[in-house]
Predict the structure of Sigma-70 family RNA polymerase sigma factor.
Amino acid sequence: MGTATVIAARDGDQRALDALVAEYLPLIYNIVGRALQGHADVDDVVQETMLRIVDGLPRLREPDSFRSWAVAIAMHQVRDRHRRQTQAPLVGDWADPTDTADPGADFADLAITRLRLSGQRQEVAEATRWLDHDDRELLSLWWLEAAGQLERDEVVDALRITRQHAAVRIQRMKAQLDAARAVVRALAARPRCPELQAIVTSWDGRPSALWRKRLARHTRECQRCDRAWMDMVAAERLLAGISLVPVPFVFSAAAAKTGAIATTAISAKGLKGLLLGWFGAAKPALAGVAATVAIAGAAGAVYVTTQGEQRPAVVSQPGGSPTAQPSASGAPSSAPPSSPAPSRTSSAPVALPPAVKSPKKGVSTNGKVTFNQAAVKDMKAGWYYNWSPSPSFGATSGVEFVPMVWGTANVDADVAKAKANGKVLLGFNEPDLKEQSNMSPEQVLDLWPKLQASGLRLGSPAVAYGGDTAGGWLDRFMSGAKARGYRVDFIALHWYGGDFGPDAPNQLKRYLQNVYNRYKLPIWLTEYALMRFDNGTVYPSTDQQVSFVKSSTAMLEGLSFVERYAWFILYSSKAGDTGLYSNGTTPTGVGAAYRAAGG
């Protein structure tokens, strides 16, 4: 969400305020929920935070710092709640167990269930239960930084400490988190270590910092349990790109009549009343199921529908602003969207983002084509890149630009531009080909610290082929990065299929699965299409390419380890190739199929 929306909301534009609250509610909920570990006070603290944000917005002097300001308010409310509860012990040592939330509200369980976490990601979520209050407070911010939802400067501002002090605290917290992960593993082992079993006979079964220390000490000293420390993937790698835990809000009857916040413009006073209605109705309504909360699996969006509704309204979508989601049939809604009431003080209406089919779906685009901005939006893409560190056009609401450092020329300048223009950085382009960036793994490794120093989420160099080959270019690079202690947050790949038959999607899937099995990192497929490189470039028929688009995008949306994919290419003047557009107005047959994909 851009600064323009913040300014409009601050100046009284009710629709902008509506969108702003819908955008930031999930972020605030995740910060508070993780800091308080699902305690019964989470709803109250989130409500207090959102009300303070709405109340204070007219006095905000620096709109471009809105997110940092909102996060700082959330942390203030968490600390304020902690001060009020100082007489009551924290999680693991409650004087009165009935004071805690229902076990179903435990934030670790919510994260595991709603984000479908498994393996080491699930272990990390379970380990958070074992941290003390201060570490959980810090974790609530660092988790979102690792996931790409916050910047380090915003974490520092919220903690009100120096950047260096924050780095030290985060390092210590991560050490405690790893100890907790070892405890989780040791307790889950079957058969359980007899010595460990003897230790826990006096344990009440509730995780706490004190018991973490006791059990972690045993895992370090026990020859049987010390294996729990082996093969731990760094937590920041596991959290990279992970979605926000969806907001489990339910509507009261009055709120349901008023309408979802993402679609209804109301006054600030009415907005506060609606917030109060949501939170006030949450606990009793959970028993009666007054509403249904559904998670859109691939898109990660949260839909809230009241009983009897068929058309969901998007409340939040990680990485993007709230958008209208079309019904499965494509039929128009029976009720037109409401518009803000006229006001003498209202600013010009804020354009809401285009409907994005899926945040996974992207496009690669030639930056020299002037109509790209409209074409990217028309493709309903969630992101785009152009093989450069700078965007092709001005900000397009709801569409993320992802910068790239293409080759060895001007690496320092390109990294600086990338840092200014994005939150994720793509590494070098096809270094395994002489006609592309043409670099050895060792050359890339020597330059990698410059990319890593950007602080951006970092993708591997995108190899043209052989990403799953032992001893291949990518394997040599990844081995070198591990040996040198370098960070690689996800694997970028290219794939071009030479088999134009119906098995092509399965061939692509097998390749992606093999690469994932080798490195256990998320995958970005940043170029793909059907074409053969023999005696020139050979393309399939339009029908074959369209069929492949439909089946491959459905497959990619269903693979949990594939975070992003981008078709090659947005525009081409050559008829019959892979271009989604051949002119500035109408998509090709392939383009029409890709535009419909991701739903």
User: Anything to note?
Assistant: Confidence is low (pLDDT under 50) at residues 87-105, 249-269, 277-355. The longest helix spans residues 163-188. The two ends are 22 Å apart (CA to CA).
